[in-house]
Design a protein that fits this description.
Number of strands: 0
Low-confidence stretches: none
Strand content: under 5%
Order of helices and strands: HHHH
Distance between the termini: 48 Å
């Protein structure tokens, strides 16, 4: 059963990603580059290693997120070299994107706090 917390946090993450896409050019570039890395990696592993598309995407994402379950491993020298380069590029981009998401969340929280404080200040200034 899916917990309410998972649903709420997934919604918040989706909302933050949408905000990032609308407001932040650097966020868009990072997301675009990660998308290109996943598509490129998927195509590479699918054709060179002969993995299914799903297995290739799974390997790319788990490598990018530094999970590395070990259920798939590149077998050819070309795949090993590609994986080294892919890991360096994708992990760096993934960390940068996660940092960007955190910055967007913090900035939104600060803006909300300023709005609330501004409303309280206006009420106290008017004598209420």
């Amino acid at each position: 059963m899916i917990s309410i917390s998972l649903i709420v946090n997934s919604y918040r993450l989706l909302k933050t990603v949408v905000r990032g896409l609308h407001r932040d050019a650097e966020f868009r570039v990072l997301l675009f580059f990660i998308t290109i890395l996943v598509i490129g990696g998927t195509l590479f592993y699918h054709h060179v290693e002969g993995w299914s598309v799903l297995d290739s995407v799974y390997f790319c994402i788990s490598t990018m997120a530094t999970i590395g379950f070990g259920d798939f491993a590149p077998s050819s020298p070309a795949s090993k070299v590609f994986t080294i380069i892919y890991s360096i590029l994708s992990i760096g981009c993934f960390v940068a994107l996660c940092s960007k998401i955190a910055v967007i969340i913090v900035n939104d929280s600060l803006q909300t706090a300023k709005r609330i404080k501004g409303k309280r200040t206006k009420r106290s200034d008017s004598g209420h």
